[in-house]
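User: Hey, quick favor. My workstation is busy. Could you predict this chain's structure for me?
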Amino acid sequence: MKRKGLGFYLRIYGKILAQDLKSKMSYRADFIISTIGMIFTNIAGFVSFWILFRNFPSIGGWSYYEMLFLYGFSLVSLTPVQCLFDNNWSLRMYVYSGDFIKYCFRPINLFFYYQSEVFDIKGLGQLAFGIGTIAFSWSKLGLGFTPVMLLKLIVFLITASLIMIALQNMASATCFWIQNSFYVLDLVTRFKDYAKYPITIFSPVFRFIFTFVMPIAFIAYYPSIVILRPEEVPLLSWLSPLIGVLFFYGSYKFWMFGALKYSGTGS
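Assistant: No problem, here it is.
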């Protein structure tokens, strides 16, 4: 069978996305309410930072606007996993009901076919809020702006997104072996809340865990420090794009291994 290229998948995704958005916009009230809820959730996070820093001038040597930058950075980097990979939350139900088998007989990539069915448009509200938070904290920190800095920001945001997508892929794919896999996925998702804090405020044990076991430090801290503190960038920050790509590829292979095993056993 002829191998399909990127152009083919982009065209297919465009058609799937258009149909998904049409179906969602037919329930406009639900879309509006959920989007407003997403925005207020992020505003609550913003306010919590403000309340915290009214009592503490800094946390672990990090100022209010630096922490706010990390918060905005994490929001933007988490948007792709919410918008593009939200169907991971339904994977266990498809597997347990047997409906997942329908994805195994199409002449396209199984991972692409499954993930492309759902686009969570509510995540765009989070994206807008995150960009606004980054821009606000950027101006307050007086970081300046150059094309090179913009390029770094984009590259490291993509890096951070790949890490979170990989974590969710691997957690959701455990359903091919574990019956109560929801708790694995829920645990990984809850850990992302720690991504908005600098890893230096944690004990050495948690620094190791958040770097090498559950690498949430790569969602905001290691990538964003390239922008915030260019004079003290650790090696792991420069390596984070490579780590993000490798980690995402590893999660894809893990997801596909489980999916193909499911297809082969007919479970």
